[in-house]
Structures are given as structure tokens and as C-alpha cells.
Amino acid sequence: MKAKSITAENTLNDIQYQQFMRDGFVKVSGLVSRELCKRMVDVVEASIEPALGPLEYEAEVHYPGAPSNRRCDGGDTPRRLLHAYARDDVFRDWACTPTVVKRVKQLIGVSDVLLTQNHHNCIMTKLPVFSSQTDWHQDIRYWSFDSPELVNVWLALGNENVENGGMKLIPGSHTMEFERGRLDANLFLRQDLPENKALLQTAVDVELEAGDVLFFHCRTFHAAGANKTDRAKYSLVFSYHAADNLPIPDTRSARLDSVSVEQ
Fold first, then answer.
1. Integer-rounded Cα radius of gyration of the chain
2. 115-171 pLDDT, tens per residue?
3. What pairing do the DSSP bridges indicate for beta strands 150-156 and 233-242?
4. What is the per-residue pLDDT across 190-221, written as a single tens digit (0 to 9) for each?
5. Against a cut of 0.85, is the pTM above it?
6. CATH numbers and ranges of domains, the chain
7. Concatenated DSSP letters for 176-228?
8. Contact yes or no for 174/26 (Cβ under 8 A)
9. How many angstroms separate the CA atoms of 39 and 46, rounded?
């Protein structure tokens, strides 16, 4: 990340900014009203039953706890609703609000940022019974940009905790270099290695309430468990990059054009 921009309204305070730089993530509590969260939840639930694509099913990711295929029990459980930016005005408007954009500019250290439509850009729908576990990974693993400097913005639309599969992160992992042998074939952190076991002992659970926002670096290792409650958990996630940090041509990151979030 570049040097911090001059702070103003809708930016992080110095403590929050320094936490992000040190840990690779920061939580901002109560950034979104409960009323707006409820509006978003209404749109999400109307898109789940009946299912409104495009979406990704739990059975398609083959993560621990997911149904083995689309034909078995729970095979029609959605994992996430895709293309959130184009899906509804309520998501698009929030992605472009200064509440978000100014903080992202501050964290990346630039005056012009774009939203990528190719990564995240979704509503995570962790439903009871058939939700899966996501092992330790960096989001940049399958992303292709000139520089691995993107910021993810995760809005909790309800409470998130260990019981319903809330986020776990490893502080400072966004600044660490990892030899290829510390990752498995799918680029998840290998948990059988002593050096990785020691690192995982530093992980923290991040509990969120409806309206809380988690800003985290694309290189920060994170994971999440399954939803063991009887209520669905929904989260809205967008990712941003500097306008001059271009996706590499002919990769998934360049499939759809990034969009301007300036109002």
C-alpha cells in the first residue's frame, strides 16, 4: 500500500488505519443502518426462493461440509449470489457511497479506485444444515493484477460469529511471504506443517453485527466455518483496486471491465 492520504469525513481514524496496515484488516462498527441491512436482506431472500441466478451452489465448490453433488440432499443450497453490483440498485448504490469509497482510497493510498466485477461482487449466503467450511486462503491466489494490492469490503447483514461461520483472520499475514510448499494443490494453507500450525495459533475470530463492515487486504489469510445455527447468514462483499493497477489481459480478472465508483 502507498502512503496514507489526508483524512477527511468518511475515512478511518488513525488507530483504525494503523490497525489495517499492521494486521491486514480492520472492523468498523455500525457503518450501515439496520434499516438498509434489512432492505438488502429482503432482496437477498427474494433471490434465494425461488433462486435467481447467476449463483454458485455449495455442491459446486466441494469444500468440507458441502453436498457432494447437485442431485443429492441439499444439492440446491446456494453458496453465494453472483454479480451483486448489477443485481440490484441497493447493492450498487452502497458500493459507490463515499462511506465505502473514501475509506478504500485511504487504505490503498490513491485518489482513484475501481470496483472489480470479476472477484467477490457477491452476496455470501451461508445457510443452515448444508453450508460448507472454507479453509485458510488468500483471496489474491486466483486473482491476476499488476500488483497484489486490493481491498475487500465485507458488510455483515446480520450477526456473524463462530457458531454461524463467521470470519477468522491471521493478523499480519498480508505482509508475509509464503513458499509454495506451505500451500496445498488448491493454494490453501497446509495445516500439517509445524510452521503453519504455529501461524494458525495467532488467528483471531472477528465477530460482526448487522451494519458492521470488515475491510481486509487481499493477501490476508482468512477462513470460515460452517453455519451450525438454524438461521441463514448473509454478507455483501466487494473488492476494489487502484485505477492504475490493471488486471492482466486474458485472465479471469480481466473478463469483465472494472467500474468507476465515483459519484
1. 18
2. 999 999 999 999 998 889 999 999 999 999 999 999 999 999 999 999 999 999 999
3. antiparallel
4. 999 999 999 999 999 999 999 999 999 999 99
5. yes
6. 14-260 (2.60.120.620)
7. ----GGGB-TTSPBPTTSHHHHHHHTT-EE--B-TT-EEEEETTS-EEE----
8. no
9. 11
